[in-house]
Specification:
single chain; about 240 residues; alpha+beta; Ubiquitin-like (UB roll); DNA polymerase, domain 1; 5-stranded mixed β-sheet; 6 helices; about 10% strand
Length: about 240
């Protein structure tokens, strides 16, 4: 008669040998051991927040107060109360009330905010107003003199070089600087010989030099024609 006989209806498995534990008991022992090992981690995760070490509080700094900043814009001095973080674009629009300079992408990608600093074109959304004290700033409002439009402004009207007009102030400021750069001998990436200035601006030169100004209406052909006409002398000297 076998010593490992299991009574009918019992859920215990017969042992292979008298001294070997059943599979059920082995699994029960392994589960108990795993539970004991996990228990410390469970206790650590369920500790109340008050008992956990707290991180040191972040150091907070008071914002810099506004201070007077004097900007020379279109030949006029504007003394504005500005925080150091105010961009030149916001200073012109929101503080000086010169709304001709447009805020497009506010990331330096569209060129709608182009103004001239000492005759050099710059994206006003990417520079701080406090950096330009004592410099001559020219916006689209300052290109006309004594009620007379500049040659570039007239050329844009004559060649219908705009549609919605939102990018036009930046386009005109950029074109004005482009002509000055070309006349001073500044080369571009499409200039065939950087040692010699070509006698005329080609369409490729104009497109390359105006590539920082986006026209979402697609008036590029007329913009190129307007710039070429000014450089060719059809609308007066730039």
């Amino acid at each position: 008669m076998s010593r490992n006989r299991v009574p009918p209806g019992s859920d215990e498995e017969p042992d292979a040998t008298p001294n070997q534990p059943s599979r059920r008991r082995f699994l029960q022992s392994a589960a108990a051991a795993a539970t004991v090992g996990v228990a410390p981690h469970v206790r650590a995760q369920t500790q109340p927040a008050a008992s956990l070490p707290s991180a040191p509080p972040a150091e907070t700094r008071a914002p810099e107060p506004p201070r007077p900043v004097t900007l020379s814009v279109n030949g006029r001095a504007y003394t504005l109360q500005l925080e150091p973080r105010v961009t030149l674009l916001d200073a012109l629009r929101e503080y000086a009330g010169l709304m001709g300079t447009k805020k497009g992408c506010d990331r330096g990608q569209c060129g709608a905010c182009t103004v001239l600093i000492e005759g050099r074109r710059i994206n006003s959304c990417l520079t701080l107003a406090v950096m330009h004290e004592g410099e001559a700033i020219t916006t689209v409002e300052g290109l006309a003199g004594n009620g007379v439009l500049s040659p570039v402004q007239r050329a844009f009207i004559e060649h219908d070089a705009f549609q919605c007009g939102y990018c036009t102030p930046g386009q005109i400021c950029s074109a004005t600087a482009l002509l000055s750069e070309f006349n001073s001998g500044t080369a571009s990436t499409v200039t065939a010989d950087v040692r010699m200035r070509p006698p005329q601006l080609s369409d490729d030169e104009i497109r390359e030099r105006m590539s920082g100004n986006i026209c979402r209406c697609g008036a590029y052909a007329n913009i190129v024609a307007a710039v070429r006409s000014v450089q060719g002398g059809n609308s007066g000297n730039a």
